[in-house]
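residues and backbone:
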Amino acid sequence: MSTDEAAEVGMFRAVICLQTQDLDKYSRNYFDTGNSRCALLALDAWTQTEAPGSIDHPPTDHVANVLLRCQEYGSVVNFIVRDPEFIDHPDMLTLFGISSPEQAVESESQDITYQRTVQPRSFIFAKASTLKPHDSKPRNERDPITLSKNEVDDLIRRTLLERLNALIEKVDNLSRKSRRFEICPQFLTTKACSGHADKTCWRDHLSEKELTIEQFNSRFRLHLLSIAFVDYWTAIDGSVNEERNRATKQ
């Protein structure tokens, strides 16, 4: 087994067991080397761990690392959904649980329709089930589903963007109520806050002397990282509400 193969085996083990630290390491390594297939798998599994929800935990470097992983996930997803040929790669189809029939189907109008088969293990299988024509023959609920190539590719892109948007919503909401991001202005200027003692004020309480240039810069960096990640939010349907939501976040 080669070094690369051994690394992939280790990555698969980390994905199956949702090993946060290992997934963080594999995500960073595969992203840095431009391996989008392995980076997507490692990063997507990483988003399912407790890591994205820990952005309120000290130290600041930890929060920055979480936001960097989130940005990498957004970058990989955006690259995949915008590259018309990347999904056609056999390794990507295998990753997504998709297979392609050897022959295309010719309709009555003599148009050639290329098809893909969605396997039960695929992350889009549930959605593919809703697109199966109602007049098709009865089948077992766990049988593979064959749809047109365009339908399957659209499902893959849509589902990836939905997962990315859900992560952005989570991180954005957490960061808006995180002590790592916000300093209590009242306590900073007057050294007093009515909500400090009973913890009804969720902001971080630092005095003017405690707020060093390094601390200010590190918090400012977190805001920049958070803004950069939110910018990956994508209006999937292009509805007015989606566009308004995107504008609000930006």
